[in-house]
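Q&A FORM
Asked by: J.P.
Topic: structure of 26S proteasome non-ATPase regulatory subunit 5

PROVIDED:
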Amino acid sequence: MSNEDTEQYREFINKLQGDEHRPIALNEIKNLLSFKSSPEVVTTIRDFGISKIVQCLNVADKNDVDLTCEVLKLCFEKFQVGDVIKTYVGHIMYLLRHQKDCVRKLAIDEVYKVVATDPNLLPVQQYIDVYVATAQLVSDTDVGVANKAILITSNLPIDTYPKVLEEMKIALEYNSSSKCNALEVIINISSKSFDLFNLSADLGYIAFMVSELQSKDFLYHLNILELLSRLSVTSYGINYLVKEGALKSIADIVAGFDSNPLAGLLISGYMKFFGCVAHHYPKEIFDKYPVLLEALFSAFDTSDHNVLPVALDTLGFVGTTVEGKLCLVALGSKYTQTIEKLGQIIKNSPTEIKVRALYCFANIISIDKDPSVPKTGPVDHRVTLMTREWFRSLSERPPSMEIVFGLCKNPFPDIKLAAFTFLDALCQHQWGEELVARTAGFIEYLLDRSVDYTKESKEVKYDIIKRLSNSAAFDPNMISRLQTYVEQGPFYSESQLEVAMEDGD
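REPLIED BY: S.T.
REPLY: Here is the structure written out as tokens.
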């Protein structure tokens, strides 16, 4: 800044100590810095420091405090990322522990900038106190500050975590909201590596979480279950839960639902947990914890529209993989009866349930969502036979593919999209392609671009036609039409052709 501007800045800074002149001086600093470039402003700020501005945070007038935060934020924005903390680490520590929410938010935003840009920007040994002070804010009373602290603390350099994990003990002494925040951080850290998981387990955090499933606070209970499900998808996490008897404890809770007054509130959360674990380890769960399957299948007999959607999502998630499909079919009549019920749900339920059921059935039929299945080559013949039989059970009269055709023509966009997703799963099998070819008017309907579709439906329909364009189920003339559709893309319209012809003329 010019000498004149610098002198003005000095004058404004000196006025901050008097109550009478403070608001005016803060506004004058704000106006002076707002329209100056960062390099010239940073030099002046460094020369005069920010101590006198920070002191303005300790006044009783809330308006003065808010204005001071605005001025400090403006000052900080002029620095390169990380330089504020490097230059004023003492002040940042003070701001992180300040009693006023807006001040803590100001400070934590600076830490967030660093972590979002490069978690290694600040050497851990030199700035560990900043990281620890930030970690302590996961139990902050201000939700915005707490959420940002969770985000920061979950993405720090690895060598900060032994100290940070120790700090989480303090948050576990507060209310359920604080405990949930701390446990979320613990799970986020534990999921990064086997060593960090072991550190969390050694500190007693995982055992503490399992014990908290006895809580009568059902929202807190469900949060704990959600966090455990995220941990259980790691090999070391599920091994711990099995070895320490935690998974059996969870199964026992489900088994006791008949006498649990909270069962109706908790069953959805337990199904989600079961679905998450069984998706990755279906054989182990099916063999050792049949009570979880019983809870899932019994949900298909309920009229509770809060539980049924979760059951549909869970069954679809478990049946997404080939291993999941094989484990399900090995259950015999219990599973086939559930598939028949799924067909009835698709035909006779309200829109929301019908849509969830279609996506569930699509996952069970699909093979593309399993990363273990090769993208080219023959499909496992067992899967071919299973999925074809499951699809046939959808409807005897009218035939199942006519039911799908009717759903694809449904005027409601959400049903149409779900139906196309289901059809795409069917067309991942040769028998599905052949059924489309044999269903009168179906392929012509798919090729008709004049029918109104949403963007999402057009994209799914395009994927279906792309599959069919390489199918042996159609004659050469139809294959040519399908390939032309693919070449034109999902959003081609006749109006584009007309414009192109006019341009040519």
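FOLLOW-UP: The chain has a mean pLDDT of 90.
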